[in-house]
Amino acid sequence: MAGLFDGTPLERPVTCETCGKPLADCRCPRDASGRLLPPGKQTARILLEKRSGGKWVTRIAGLDPCASDLGDLLHQLKHRCAAGGAVQDDHILIQGDHREAAGEMLAAAGYRVRIQ
Predict the structure, then answer these.
(1) pLDDT at residue 1, as a whole number
(2) Does 73 fall in a domain?
(3) Is residue 84 part of a domain?
(4) At residue 95, what are phi and psi to the nearest 5 degrees?
(5) H/E element holding 114?
(6) What pLDDT is recorded for position 4?
(7) pLDDT tens-digit profile, the chain (116 residues)
(8) CA pair distance 64, 70, nearest whole angstrom
(9) In a domain, 71, yes or no
(10) Domain count of the fold of the chain
(11) Residue 26, in any domain of the structure
(12) pTM for this model (two decimals)
């Protein structure tokens, strides 16, 4: 990506407006289009679903899969709730009713939470 004053002695790389690092080194959460999408701008909807066989599953939806590391969030939730889970169709699934624990953990991470 071309920087400011590209090709001159004053050339500088394009930097992130949040962290100030060059865009190649920036780790700020961004959506698929490259715009900044911090956790505070995302609303996690936490639902309880009954699956076939009578099993309950906590589903977390509404998080951007590019800006949020769903795999890392799943790992933290599985550890916190002591339950299994998976990422499926851009949703996080946790086995059992863990709406309150998931809501507390996501709120502590900076996400807006809506428990339904």
Answers:
(1) 55
(2) yes
(3) yes
(4) -70, 125
(5) strand 112-115
(6) 64
(7) 566 666 676 677 778 877 888 877 887 888 777 788 888 889 999 999 999 889 999 999 999 988 888 999 999 999 999 999 999 999 999 999 999 999 999 999 999 999 98
(8) 9
(9) yes
(10) 1
(11) no
(12) 0.78
